[in-house]
Amino acid sequence: MFSPRCVFDACACDQGGDCECLCTALAAYAQECNNRGAPVNWRSQLLCPMQCDRRCSLYKPCISTCPFETCDNLMTNSKLTKSCSEDACVEGCSPKVCPPDFVYLNESYAECVPRNTCKPVCMGE
Fold this sequence. Notes:
Elements: H1 2-11, H2 18-35, E1 56-63, H3 77-84, E2 90-95, E3 102-104, E4 112-114
Antiparallel strand pairs: 1-2, 3-4
Helix pairs in contact: 1-2
């Protein structure tokens, strides 16, 4: 049922901004595939490219919505990850993976630091 609607939406792109319209229709179709556990690697440099900045290693059609472990969420990350681990994945730019025993300094995901240098913040401080 979703596929014919996707084709209809993609073929209906007949005004200015056709590429954006086509990309939006394809992205919606791909997200529905993600929701059903069947990620589609459909983007390329020629078809609806997604530009990732230098701190992100590459585009992936299916990345987790769970937050990465940071110094700021060190004490709560396991609970956060449990609550979102069953969510459908989304396409996007995936940050570089920190080496073993390292975590991200903060939510910018720009810098990995040794886990033992983190000073976890307690609630109320």
